[in-house]
Amino acid sequence: MSRYVWSRLLAVLAAATLALANAEATQPERVLAGVLDVLAGDWNEDGEVDRAVLWRPRVEDPRVDLFVFLSGQAPQVLPGAAWSGDGWGSFPELRTAARGFAVISGNRAAGREPWEVVFDVAWRGGRLWVVAYRYSRYGSSGADGGLLCLVEFASGWGEKNGVRFAVKPEPVPLEAWSEELLPTGCRRR
What we know:
Blueprint: H1 3-20, H2 28-33, E1 35-41, E2 50-55, E3 63-69, E4 76-83, E5 93-97, E6 100-107, E7 115-124, E8 127-137, E9 147-152, E10 157-160, E11 163-166, E12 172-173
Antiparallel strand pairs: 1-2, 2-3, 3-4, 5-6, 6-7, 7-8, 8-9, 8-12, 9-10, 10-11
């Protein structure tokens, strides 16, 4: 079995173990059915495989939790880190990003106003940080015409529909991440 396949299996089992501690999730098949995506890498640069798992605890709830398993550390959980719909184009995903990974969610396939949220997580100074955020909404109806908002926490700038603005030049610790930390015009909700 390749190291890649083994790391994915371990991530799923780790997520299942944590989820089983939740009183609402008592059947392993239900727990495993909630795993939407898994990504492996060596984000803390210690030579060991680290994993991120997107897990949807309940089918009727669109909120998706992020579990991060760094070698030698307790798992980190960010409840409601992503959103999931029930059809193609609305499932969240994880992608590799510079020194970390990106969490992507949105409704990219259906409806009159497709949208997407991406936030980048990077390892810096001994911990995981949210270093960047992007929200895009493509309006196909009305006078709105859409929205593109970028926020680069690490470098201290943002941009909304081409207009730059300043933000506090400080990444946000992953465990403290919330869209409430964004400028009002860049929030999805």
